[in-house]
Amino acid sequence: MSSRRDFLTNTLAVLAGSSFLTSGARGATLVKGQPVPAGAEMTIRQAIDRIVADIPGAPFAETVDTVKSGNPEQPLKGIVTTMFATDEVITGTIRQGANFIIAHEPTFYNHADETDWLVGDKVYDYKKALLESHGIVVWRFHDYWHSFRPDGILMGVLTAMGWDKYYNAGAPEIVTVPEITLGEIVAMAKKAMGIDKMKMIGDLSAKCQRIVVLPGASGGRRQISVLRKYQPDLLICGELNEWETSEYVRDARYQGQKVSLLVLGHAVSEEPGMEALVPWLNARLPGVPVKHIASGDAFSWV
Ligand SMILES: [Zn+2]
To answer: How many structural domains is the chain composed of?
Structure first.
């Protein structure tokens, strides 16, 4: 952690017992594992430091989890968690009176949120102005949440499906569930995650027990490697490249393998994990209003 946190911790240690540490003192304690006292005024930067303090191995030297917009030194008024800081989510945040968006995915349409290539673009300029005129801070929480143990995003989707009890820390990608048909899993997933339609390879009557769950877009090589490793009945993923994993599954089935595939959609597959972040934050930042605003699926089905 930064020397800044050490400075704060040391400073607070020196101040311990003094009137500076009464409720409402500026500068919340950032001791690892300890919640920030309720009612303590803190900056958004201090909230970020408190969150990161509970992530194993953090802070990371290389990460996309950086502040994308706004000044984090301002006092924290409230937090909104979401998958994507869309214009609509930003507007909802402003209505809530919150000033800190924790988003899982990029804000500016590319993995590293590089913006030099977007300067002068109307869509980008609108969003930038919307954020800046209301002093909204956007921070990405992707690498850190996936690095928490158990992975916060994975546990979100497993809990939504009622499969969290089957989580195995030794093989987190796969759950073994009581026998269930693919059709029943489709119905459960639609209900649990509010999904309208999803892509599938397989037969609805296929019986499944060993299920690999990879929310988000982990990439063809990773998806196929996990299929090779576990030989599951079913792979559930968020997003794939249509020229990679789905073609592998098609050939595997032609060759007699029983593997099925469900593609939930990227946003809907990880949304439960960002919603699950709300109680996680409540435990660490008591007194801070935290709300989840679902960015939802950009697509409709015709
Ligand atoms: Zn993710």
So the answer is: 2
Decide if 302 is inside a domain. no
Is the same domain home to 176 and 49? no
For 111-144, write each residue's pLDDT tens digit.
999 999 999 999 999 999 999 999 999 999 999 9
Would you call the peptide bond into 59 cis, given omega within 30 degrees of 0 as the criterion? yes
What is the distance in A from the centroid of ligand 1 to the CA of 70? 23
Please report which confidence band the pLDDT of residue 41 belongs to, taking 50, 70 and 90 as the band edges.
Answer: confident
Q: Are residues 132 and 254 in the same domain?
A: no
Which residues have CB less than 5 Å away from ligand 1 (the ion)? 153, 216, 270
Q: Specify which residues 81 forms β-bridges with.
A: 102, 292
- Give me the pLDDT at residue 1, please: 37
CA of 33 to the centre of ligand 1 (A): 24
- Largest Cα–Cα separation, the chain: 74
Q: How far is the CA of 295 from the centre of ligand 1 (A)?
A: 14
CATH number at residue 122: 3.40.1390.30
In which domain, by residue range, is 63 found?
A: 3-148+272-292
Helices (H), the chain: 3-15, 44-52, 87-96, 122-133, 143-147, 152-160, 182-193, 220-230, 245-254, 266-275, 277-284
Tell me whether strands 137-140 and 67-69 are parallel, antiparallel or unpaired. Answer: antiparallel
